[in-house]
Amino acid sequence: MWSSVAVLALPIALDPVRLGVNLLLISRPRPAQNLLVYWIGCVSASVLLLVVPLLVLHNTAMFASFVHDLANPHTAASATVRRIEIGVGVLILLIAALTAARSAKPDSGEASPVSRLLNRGRDAPAEGGSAIQRLLGRAHHAWESGALWVAAVIGFWAGPNPSLVTFSLATILASGAAFGAQLGAAVVFIIVSLAVVEIVLLCNLVAPDGTAVALRRVHDWVGGYRRWIVVVILTLVGLAFVAQGAGML
Fold it and tell me: Where is the chain membrane-spanning (predicted)?
């Protein structure tokens, strides 16, 4: 259970988009506060998607039999989940192969989706226009004025991938471990998935200038190999799913 959860959390931690968001936040006037609020947003999303369902499944009588069957490898529920894991793993490996085939040229290090979304709000009207345009305009104004709630919203939106969280939850439940151990595994998943954010936050508190320079170098390097990094991450996740479904983890 522990190794499987850690493997599923690594792609989230090493996501190039998340790295770009870290660089974006560290360039703000109050980088430490923005990073902390962003981390809180990410943790909130992780708790909502992983810890809350775990608590509900373990403490609701109508789900007790399902949790029991999932933890028993000889039941239909467990066999179904394992077949789904193998199927998803094969699908992810195929996506990785297709991505590798289309990655003949390195990426140009384009801006992150969050940065592009905020820039779209630069020229959005504060009044008039569509509701989405007004919302983007207000978000951009709040971002430029240093409002921390924008970082919290970005963190909540850029939280862990729901599909990886779902399979992490299934992996934890299928382990048959005690509830305390399963809750601990969920916490480990959250910590590992946010490892880069946590490291950047701590380094920024100790050496803000050096952290910004180092993160910029890493970001620029990642920008040139974004697709290949995605291929590696997809391959690891696909192999983890297949191994988990086959009972090798």
Answer: 35-57, 142-159, 179-207, 228-247
